[in-house]
Amino acid sequence: MEHKKINLTLKVWRQQDANAKGKFADYKVSVSPDSSFLEMLDDINNDLEKKGMEPITFESDCREGICGTCGLVINGQPHGPIPRIATCQLHMRNFKEGDTIYVEPFRAKAFPIIKDLMVDRSAMDRIMEAGGFISVNTLSVPDGNSIPIPKEVASEAMDAASCIGCGACVAACKNASAMLFVSAKVSQFALLPQGQPERYIRVDEMVKAMDQYGFGNCSNTYACEAECPKGVSIKNIARMNRDYFMAKIK
Amino acid sequence: MAKLDSKIPAGKLEEKWTNHKFNMKLVNPANKRKYDVIVVGTGLAGASAAASLGELGYNVKAFTFHDSARRAHSIAAQGGINAAKNYRNDGDSVYRLFYDTVKGGDFRAREANVYRLAEVSNNIIDQCVGQGVPFAREYGGLLDNRSFGGALVSRTFYAKGQTGQQLLLGAYTAMNRQIKLGKVKLYTRREMLDLVVVDGAAKGIIVRNMLTGEIEKYSAHAVVLATGGYANVYFLSTSAMNCNATAIWRAHKKGAPFANPCYTQIHPTCLPIHGEGQSKLTLMSESLRNDGRIWVSKLKKDMRKPNDIPEEERDYYLERKYPTYGNLSPRDISSRAAKEAIDDGRGAQGQDAVYLDFKDAINRLGKKVIEERYGNLFEIYETITGDNPYESPMKIYPAPHYTMGGLWVDYNLMSTVQGLFVAGEANFSDHGANRLGASALMQGLADGYFIVPYTVGNYLAGDKPVMVKTDHPEFEKAKKNIEEMTAKLLSIKGNRTVDDIHKQLGRIMWNKVGMGRNEKGLKEAIEEIRKLREEFWKNVNVVGQSNDVNQCLERAGRLADYLELGELMALDALNRKESCGGHFREEYQTPEGEALRNDEEYAYVAAWEFAEAGKWNLNKEPLEFESVKLATRSYK
Question: What pTM was computed for the model?
């Protein structure tokens, strides 16, 4: 059912490439409150294309809040004003007639801007490649039920594993730290029996890569947890710090 | 004509795969590093194949159009993954999973492939547990299960409502390990635009670097395509925005037959459309049907709020029509039943929607249990619609979700193009005319971890293919063609946007090649698609440059392929004068309105060979059923 449209002013960050100077461009829109934020951008782009003008470059894929592709800073907040959702899950019923909305890319030293609202977050994959895995070959594993895992442990590991790798934690942090992202993976494996053999090598390698790719340090502001679309807990950072300490004295 | 040799090994069904593995040629471990394998797509099938091939010692070049391998759409699968572990002691077995899958697919899948799928299903669970996938557990610490549509046993393993995410991240971490070890080289933000074939064998690919626009060439001894399905031909589907058919379609145009393109799955539990600006459809996991009851009002045009409609005026139509399976009836049947109710004017408050109601389950089990089971799904629903499903029933509507059709492959998952392997949703092999819930994850990982690594080795050891250099004339020619196509797209400068034309195609497909199909509609669809294709090449407006990030150009290239594929889907649907699974021809139904198969004439795989735009040759692979008796599929 279509509801009455609302009128908004958008100020969207446009930047031709990594080296160009960016600026905000203004767009007036009239949008259904049932529309999603990204559908509103689709509409703007369709209008721009009709006029032969370049659409706003932004990334999104699943539009269900799970792939981690989308990520915009909306009015200063990564993924916008509603907690625990990704940008693609933000709907226009959360805005009101006459609002002005600022739309920017995730900003962090480790996330160079590619074009407009699209950034390069590949440094996060480099950290994962450094040690974010359990070394088992295909078919070299025991029966699934031969490794009993208490329900609450499995569930805590699942909570950590629910990270979608969007980078909002980095964008939210004044130090552009990736501690929440890294600690989520470290925790998932540190909690599970399968992760024990490489527990300390893993944290060491991942932290090393995190430092190498220009992410900052954690100063406990909790901004990451507040902006995380999956509510990944900063308890994971504490666990990672403890494991990192253990890795260093071992 | 392409020669379709399914290469199904001889022997008893249960022994085929074991014997075949033993008979396969092996590559000397020292020689494996001399072979290069390209894997396109890094979802479940691609990432697991790349990781396993890397572990074996081959040099793998993996390609994804995403910025990271973790973004593939496998990640969005919610409900779970099937395996025949029989941990529930409820009578499950490899044979039962095999049988359910063949029956669920309405007897249009290849028996031997499906049996192998069921056979390796148990390995998948072990593999994923070993990688640290946090599957749901019981209090005793052992793996938990839930039920899914089309089965009377509880065999679905799950990780909250994020099973696909966790399995994909498992495969992603396995691949990352190989990247660190130097056995897999990952190329991100590369979109495959052509397959390079030399003397009938796949030798490499042409990709567009999506950051610089450069057209790049990569060669290998074998190519594995694991690029997913084509449901986005409908514009609105549950597929991710960037899912597309381009890789398989361009391979099809280079000689790979396309099998059963008309077999598309319309998923019964998606959120209804909110308006013209809708960009995609959102799936609500089928697992909700474990506890939710589906109904509509018995009255036409009933505009009352659902909670104001008394019990006796509700029609729980799935429970009424299919008492044995009820709300867990297979997807095709559930979707069609919803369409029937809506066509009958009984949609929820006059909308294109039916109710999925948890009131009884909440009364029976308590809100807390329901919250534990489906909490995140209920949250998603409320975020999108603004309604609270604990208080009033969800509104759902069917949406294009999965495509059973895909590139034709033999038992080794190899196309008729030698050295071209196709895995996961991109191939046609295991689901027949309808896929059961929680079987897509199973098939993707079965292909990637347990089948392709063997069969690629067999090809390399047996055929001893040679690698050609990327300055070979075929590479040059393919590159030039792509550059010309890009230039052409950018030069049209017409009046219609890419999405505008795509939406029109989607409407044709949904109305005429959707849940119900008939001869007249299909013939009209073919004409309309042809006209639209012509219009696209004359009147589309692709803005921007070729040597830059250009999402408009990306979408245009994909649409160009959909405009051909859509026609083939309609042609295949027109050819198949029977109803089976997701393909429902209105002319062929029982008096009760159920699908009416024609096993005499249509128990075959339709593998279409590309001749020229708008012209295909049909090859038939007869389906032989040795273990399963062909029966009318009944869920009553």
Answer: 0.97
